[in-house]
Structures are given as structure tokens and as C-alpha cells.
Specification:
13 helices; Nonspecific Lipid-transfer Protein, Chain A; 2 domains; single chain
């Protein structure tokens, strides 16, 4: 969840303080007690990944590349002990899933309120400073509305000029009867739609900090290939639920002399 990832800047700082002290705040305050459970680094982001549909260890790790496997294991155990998630093991396959508990779901309006606050009060330049294309594409993969795609195989290639991740080019592939597949290497299929842009532009569009139309007009979001997919991109690519927050801090228009 990209908005949740932006909250991590403050959460990381508080998390580092918590991990350095490893002690409770020692305050007779319900808010402080809640922070003792939620502040440890990555806790809120893990909840965001679970909310976004991830349930397996590798799925959560894929959405949070900055967390080490050992720390993720530790946090999942702590969150289970705190009643925020349930660990379910399929004895037939050995697969393990993590699901949020009712206790964790009760946090939804609080975390959503925090995300809306971030959309209004954190400057766009700060909110969009991350350039990890892998995290962005992992998010976009789960936001494709397959009912709005032509009922055949569809291949969309994204290329990001400013990516800091190991890969800068990705393919989203979908065909009837399958889920959307994300590839970071050429799958060998003919591409229906090519998209050339930057991570900061695509994430800005996703978060409502930028607009499709303005970035297309400015030459910052270029599409070629299938005109049908290009014309209907706003239908099949669902942007963030926080993109229409009132008073959102948008990227400033460039001023020309």
C-alpha cells in the first residue's frame, strides 16, 4: 500500500527509538500503550500489505523490500502474540497464511485517517521521492480491473527512466481465466501497450498527486500501441482509494517564463 509506505518515514524514526530503548514509554496514556504495539518498525506497513491482499511470507516481503527476512519473521511473531494477526498452516501443503484479526481490522479507520492526513499535509515532493519501481509495480499488479480489459491476452510494458530498483522495465500480463502476472524480464509475448514514464510520475498518478491528462499533455506519460488500452487506462488501472482526498497536496505545475 503506497500511502502506508509513505507513513513509514515517521514510523521508521519512531521505530528506531523504540528498538534502541526496548522499553515501554512508562506513561499512563492509552495512546502511548497503543504506540508500544504499533510503533515497532514495519508493523503498520505489514498491516497495510495484509489489508492489500498479501497473505504469504514472500508476498509480504515482495511488497516491503526494505525489511529483512529475519525482521519480518520477528514482526509477524510479535503481531501474532499481540493478537493483530492469525497464522494459518495448511497441513496438506505446508503453506502458511497470515490474516488480520478483528482486533487489527478495528484499526482500519484509524490508519485510513492517518493516510488521508498524509495526503493532505505531506508535500508531494516528499511523498513521491521513492523510486523503487518494483514496489510500485507490485502495487499496480493488484489494481488491474480485469473486467475492463479485452477478453484475450493483454501485455502491457512499463519502462521507468528514474527507477532505483534492479529492474526498470516490467510486463503486466493477463488472459481470461488467469490472474494478472508481473514479470521483470521479457516474457516473449507481443506487447499490446507500451508505457514510458518515471516512477515519480506513475506513483503520483496512482496517489492522486498528479493527473493522467496533465502528465500526458506534458509528455511525461507516453503510451504507444493499442489505442483501446490507451484510451481506457483509467478504467482498467484503478488508482488509490486515497487519490480523491479533499485538499490533497498535489505536485505544483511547472512555471514557464
Amino acid at each position: 500500500m503506497l500511502v502506508a509506505s509513505k507513513v513509514r518515514e515517521g514510523n521508521d524514526v519512531l521505530g528506531k527509538v523504540t528498538e534502541m530503548t526496548a522499553k515501554p514509554f512508562g506513561l499512563f496514556c492509552p495512546t502511548s500503550k497503543a504506540c508500544e504495539v504499533l510503533i515497532p518498525r514495519w508493523t503498520i506497513q505489514i498491516l497495510g500489505e495484509l489489508w492489500g491482499g498479501s497473505s504469504r511470507f514472500n508476498e509480504i516481503k515482495r511488497g516491503l523490500p526494505g525489511i529483512s527476512p529475519s525482521l519480518l519473521t520477528k514482526r509477524l511473531k510479535e503481531m501474532q502474540e499481540n493478537g493483530l494477526l492469525e497464522r494459518i498452516e495448511d497441513t496438506a501443503t505446508g503453506n502458511i497464511d497470515y490474516i488480520r484479526t478483528a482486533k487489527a481490522e478495528e484499526l482500519d479507520p484509524i490508519l485510513q485517517g492517518l493516510a488521508k492526513w498524509a495526503q493532505r499535509h505531506i508535500k508531494a515532493e516528499i511523498a513521491l521521492e521513492d523510486r523503487d519501481a518494483d514496489v510500485l509495480m507490485w502495487t499496480l499488479q493488484r489494481r488491474i480491473i480485469i473486467e475492463e480489459l479485452p477478453q484475450r491476452r493483454n501485455v502491457v510494458r512499463f519502462n521507468f527512466a528514474d527507477a532505483t530498483s534492479p529492474a526498470s522495465t516490467y510486463w503486466l500480463i493477463w488472459k481470461p481465466g488467469d490472474s494478472v502476472e508481473l514479470c521483470a524480464s521479457d516474457p516473449g509475448f507481443d506487447v499490446d501497450l507500451y508505457i514510458e514514464t518515471e516512477v515519480s510520475v506513475m506513483s503520483g498518478i496512482f496517489l492522486g498527486r498528479r493527473s493522467f491528462d496533465r502528465e500526458i499533455d506534458n509528455g511525461c506519460f507516453f503510451m504507444s500501441g493499442s489505442q483501446h488500452l490507451a484510451k481506457t487506462i483509467k478504467r482498467w488501472l484503478k488508482i488509490s482509494i486515497y487519490a480523491d482526498v479533499d485538499g490533497i497536496a498535489k505536485v505544483a505545475e511547472a512555471r514557464h517564463p
